[in-house]
Write a structure and sequence with these properties.
The protein is α+β, with helices and mostly antiparallel strands. It has one domain (12-76): Ubiquitin-like (UB roll). 15% of the residues lie in helices and 32% in strands. It has one helix and three strands. The chain has one helix at 47-58; strands spanning 12-22, 25-36, 43-44. Strands 1-2-3 form a three-stranded antiparallel sheet, covered by helices on one side. The structure holds zinc ion (ZN). Zinc ion is lined by residues 3, 5, 7, 37, 39-40, 42.
């Protein structure tokens, strides 16, 4: 996988979690495979991961639990 910005280094595979919104509600998908460019930090989602996201957003995948986290809104900081 090459960086869309034309960097020479191949993109690195990374497992990460991502926040999405479904029906206005935040959902988190963890262990998502994502490509990251070590040079410019550009991220790219491989097709299998994009499909997972699509299925989750469509509601065809059942969740494995609730995710809760502290929320920091930028308007409240400072
Ligand atoms: Zn790059």
């Amino acid at each position: 996988m090459e960086c869309p910005n034309g960097c020479l280094s191949p993109m690195e595979i990374k497992k990460d979690e991502r926040l999405f919104h479904r029906n206005g509600l935040p959902i988190v998908i963890s262990d998502l495979t994502i490509y990251v460019c070590p040079e410019c930090g550009q991220e790219s989602m491989p097709l299998p991961s994009a499909r997972i996201v699509e299925n989750v957003l469509k509601g065809t995948v059942s969740s494995s639990g609730k995710f809760t986290a502290e929320l920091y809104e930028m308007s409240c900081v400072g």
